[in-house]
Backbone:
């Protein structure tokens, strides 16, 4: 018996999840798709042979046949829809970030807890085969005690400047994935962050009050030291690499490429560039994320990414913001 | 409007194609699955929500709603079913090899031609992103005039000895893929083959009259020289590499791996082994093969692998067999 | 006509330079070797067929036939010998660091300036083919404007604890090479450092008041952000990698290995570990360093590493020390 | 006490060996250099501070102080000088090939045997760190029983056409190194060769009666099958790769490069081309070859490359020539 799901939000990520559920996750059945732009919901529903399309997300929450909802609407609606869905007894998958306001996040998490429903947050990179392999090897002790973590995460091109203006800033929009990855890989909490940054890609990003190039130092409770570097534009494509160094060895995850062909000619030895962006690189991680959400609900398995996992990276992002603005290391305990 | 397809054969490859059509190729609709083992057909049909399962392939050929058939039954039935399908006006996708008897192949191809239906042969590796990229670069002149071709193709483990006994021998069962690849990459016909071989994997294969380790030299009409090496067992997994060297450069396709993580420890620097076998390595090529077949039929596009492309590698296999047995180079023109 | 050189210090590095001069740099002639341990000087002189061995470095400075000296004695003697050598009109190659006391360094540099002799400091890594290539590509604009620098520099094993106690600490002993590399690669000065560190290798290092694992963030005057990570022990060998990311691309220098052979077996795909330590990795850079010193003197070419290049990394090391101790970013202008 | 050596031939390879002996092999002392072009001998002697230069190689053979000779003169003089040197009781290092005439080789080898002197042949690639590592791993059983050998050996550019005309053909001039490598790596004798070839680089080579692009199949006595591919021009540089596949694994030796830096830009991910030609690629192997020759003589160690190792590849070359000309596999036993 498959899990009956409603998808809220028919934008890029909502369509992606819906398509993955329809074509790649036989254990799920999509009953309805909602979007404030009703035409978008209808277009998607028709293409995927989903029976219902609606302009009101409440239609999904109120539908008694639906057991779980995917919240893929704009960030400012997440906490509200989480609370309503929880109240209606639906299990919830919610895209990151839950919210940029800590109080609203905590309020939403309490509603989830009270309702006893499951909530998974959309940190899809945890399901990437490279990074999952790194995590497994670290957890298996293959590199002994971890000591240094290095995350490189660079986008191929910056988002539209309109998006930058409302994104909550690079730390909450882009680095948040790396904050989650840092916690996931090391299995310990970060206690302090120090952020350095500047504008090297587009002055308009600076004019919007943000930076586009950052390096963040992380101190973990278990003594590990981490660094994250981000840039809004890497001309060679999506650069997603990770390194964990420990007392007994080192794990390095390289980029993925569209092919493994090398061309040697009179000028150079040429390899493929990395896969272009997250849709290409994380294709399989998005599918696996859905499979594990469905399995967590239907087989009562542990959630791979909990509500708390959605909360902490937001705290880290706010701490990084404060660090950059004040030019000093900031403890996570300073944020509340 | 999607193409209505019937699948003949619910063994490993038939199930794979059926599943790909159902889940990954929205432009097709699988109406029926047939297998002499009716239970196998029923199990597959039920799992994939295919409406009809049958123990008789004729039910598919006689079904007027079905526009195209996939022939995934045992090799000895291929040419017969091709002829019947063609006579019924169905478009045909047939697994390789068409047959091991040249006369039967030619008879079947004539039936196809007469009926005016489309026939695509299952050389799925042409759709592998690595090899397709090599072909595209060669065709684009990136390495100038090709001069040397090297194909390495080694299986992780030999098939059951019962299979070896009826497979037609390593050249027709295993090397046939490489013969096709050689023609595809170079875009010229092979005129002579020289095969050397021995038994290094399992004496039982030798006892069955076959070899398990071979090196074949190819002379192409355009002057290119090629070599293929095959072995029935590579302990490190499926080894599928290709190199084309030309007057202006060289293309090398490396193996694919399940992840791109390197572990450096006190002993070594360790990378992932190649993807285990063809189901893992050629996952995407099987999907793309189906997409292009469906597109060839519905949009009247050129077939990516024609009936003639099915015939020639069989001739090459027979020539290789003769070469090995007689210890001398054999021209393809000697085979008829 | 070759340059007549005296070598002061017949320890590991003194012997290395003497041997390189004798066997690999025909443009130099080693006339004498001095060491407080006279037997060590004699053993080295005999082996290399150097005419004179002495227990007094003054014998070298006072020798009118000697045109240039190599100062390879213990760090605490460097500034004194520089001053005496300069006063005697000798050109000077001095191992890093010049001193750990800024005033003494400045005093020595003034003596050099006054005497009008040449002084090159032993930052040999600038002559490593990998790093030199990175510098050349950066300088040629191949990656546009640099934005992020990442240096990984990990030793295979910590030095004896007795050495750690007198080394001046990890920043002045080990990171100092990376501080120099950072300036060399980016071609701009660092204005602020932030150092985080801990003891993960050996508690005895902590007991000696030092750390063995550090991550340092660098802010450059031109806006580049850099990070350096160091560890006193990488079980897989000497880990010396560098990455410079810029607006038009990224340069990554990988480790060097003793061979380029890959072994694929039933367990893994195995590559060689990095070259074990600096003697193996920087073999060629030590030779090239000597060649360029000799050429700078004999052909009056620009010095590849000046006295000022010896001073600034010490300032950076002192700033890093202060940063680690005070838990805050420290500007280089705070150090004097 | 070092070994006193005379060098016969001051061409490219003679100068290289002389320089290596002088600068890199302290256990040898070069007493004299001879060349029919006396000025060349003098220039070399002066540069390397070698006491004697002469236009007559007999001066070296007749010099009682000289214990060993290096024969680096033109191929047609090798066997004669070997015989005279042996008669004079000198140990001999002789460049490959000994001769292109089997009778003359055998005559020379008998003279060596009779005189009881040591004779090492200049197959320097055996001393290359990559290939030596492959050999050691094969010999240590790391890949179980070898089954397939693949050698790729391509020059960056063809030699002058005048050289091609007198070189004895590609098999005796170029492939001969690969024939030696095949025997060295597999540790078994080749019993049959099959050669295919053509002219793809320069029609003038064809006009001179030679080919410039060949693929050779080797059958070994122990059942291993090998292939060698050669081309006189690889536009990307000197391509020297080797693969040995066995029952328990596979060894692959990749090319060496001048640096390990990767440049990723908007167009591609670019690595260094292979080291340009044999002087760059085999720098260390030439030094090690001399060290082992000197050690074989002075410490009475086994010769790493014997006179018989010089003979067999010539037989293989003649067999390959016959195979190409007759279009059939040729057994080595057919050559005499």
Residues:
């Amino acid at each position: 018996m498959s899990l009956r799901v409603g998808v809220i939000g028919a934008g890029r990520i909502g369509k992606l999840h819906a398509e993955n559920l329809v074509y790649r996750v036989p254990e799920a059945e999509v009953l309805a798709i909602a979007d404030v732009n009703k035409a978008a919901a209808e277009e998607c529903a028709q293409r995927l042979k989903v029976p219902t399309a609606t302009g009101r997300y409440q239609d999904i929450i109120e539908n008694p046949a639906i057991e779980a909802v995917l919240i893929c609407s704009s960030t400012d609606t997440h906490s509200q829809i989480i609370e309503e869905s929880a109240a209606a007894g639906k299990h919830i998958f919610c895209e990151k970030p839950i919210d940029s306001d800590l109080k609203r996040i905590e309020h939403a998490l309490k509603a989830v807890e009270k309702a006893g429903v499951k909530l998974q947050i959309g940190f899809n990179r945890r399901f990437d085969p490279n990074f999952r392999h790194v995590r497994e090897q670290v957890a298996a002790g293959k590199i002994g005690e971890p000591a240094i973590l290095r995350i490189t995460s660079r986008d191929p091109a910056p988002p539209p400047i309109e998006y930058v203006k409302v994104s909550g800033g690079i730390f909450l929009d882009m680095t948040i994935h790396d904050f989650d990855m840092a916690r996931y890989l090391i299995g310990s909490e970060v206690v302090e962050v120090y952020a350095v940054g500047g504008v090297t890609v587009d002055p308009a990003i600076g004019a919007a009050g943000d930076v586009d190039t950052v390096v963040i130092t992380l101190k973990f409770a278990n003594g590990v030291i981490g660094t994250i570097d981000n840039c809004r534009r890497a001309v060679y494509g999506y650069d997603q690499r990770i390194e964990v160094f420990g007392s007994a060895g080192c794990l390095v995850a390289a980029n993925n490429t569209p092919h493994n062909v090398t061309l040697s000619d009179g000028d150079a030895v040429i390899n493929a560039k990395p896969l272009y962006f997250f849709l290409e690189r994380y294709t399989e991680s998005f599918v696996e994320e859905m499979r594990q959400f469905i399995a967590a609900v239907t087989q009562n398995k542990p959630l791979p990414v909990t509500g708390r996992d959605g909360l902490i990276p937001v705290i880290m992002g706010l701490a990084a913001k404060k660090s950059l603005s004040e030019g000093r290391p900031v403890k996570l305990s300073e944020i509340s």
